Amino acid sequence: MNSFAAANQHNQDADSNSASTPSLITRLLSNPMRIGLWDEQQLTWEYPQNTDQQNSTLFSVTAMNSTKDYEIIKVQLNNESALKKEVKIIVQYHNVFEKESTAFYSPKENAIICFFENQVTMLGGHLNGKGMSQYCLHDIHACNSLNWLESLRQGYLPLSWLAKGEVVSTFALETELSAHQSLEGVIWSFHSTSEAIVRRLKKETIHKYM
């Protein structure tokens, strides 16, 4: 079991006695998204739990807005050093309830769209005015975390635009920070019963947080 699956195993155990198709709100409460910072060849998971305090001044979550239809997380990068930095925000989504899902990258939306039974989730973000720069979709059982990290060290995520099964969706937002510069970004997920509705929700909502 890779580290992401292990981190979410408690959600599966807690829900072992629930109905086979949990409600949308139950899925949101499982906290399927985590956010990391790739800086100086190291990946630190910052949200929902910080795994290394050394980057706490560089990355912070400044606001969160959640409803049954969406989760919008505002983040800030703050370079306190006298040197410029090239950093990536790594976003990973894995819903432990969705054992047989399908996910694909949508160029039109610059977003990842996930289908599971009668539920649709759209994932994306913006950093310094730019959307996701890289993405990788794969079944969790086919994931080799060491190869995944090695790809990051070489500057890219392993490209895969379509996946089926227990899918892990990963994407990157990247930017260059000048010395003593601060930048803001937004990471979002929209949830509904059809692709058309999540597209409309994004169009109607996201501009309020940009």
Helical run tally: 4
Structural class, by secondary structure, is: alpha+beta
Characterize the largest beta sheet: strand count, sense, and whether it forms a barrel: 7 strands, antiparallel
Number of strands: 12
Low-pLDDT stretches are 1-29
Provide the spatial order of strands within the biggest beta sheet.
3-4-12-8-7-6-10
Structural features, described:
With 210 residues, this protein is of the alpha+beta class. The chain contains 4 helices and 12 strands; from the N terminus they run H-H-E-E-E-E-E-E-E-E-E-H-E-E-E-H. The strands form 2 sheets. It has a 7-stranded antiparallel β-sheet, covered by helices on one side. The protein is globular, with a radius of gyration of 17 Å.
Task: Explain briefly what this protein structure is.
This protein is of the alpha+beta class and 210 residues long. It contains 4 helices and 12 strands, in the order ααβββββββββαβββα. Helices cover 18% and strands 44% of the residues.
Q: Secondary-structure blueprint of this entry?
A:
Layout: H1 3-14, H2 24-29, E1 33-39, E2 42-47, E3 59-66, E4 70-78, E5 85-93, E6 101-106, E7 111-116, E8 119-127, E9 134-139, H3 145-153, E10 162-165, E11 167-177, E12 182-192, H4 195-205
Antiparallel strand pairs: 1-2, 1-5, 3-4, 4-12, 5-11, 6-7, 6-10, 7-8, 8-12, 9-11
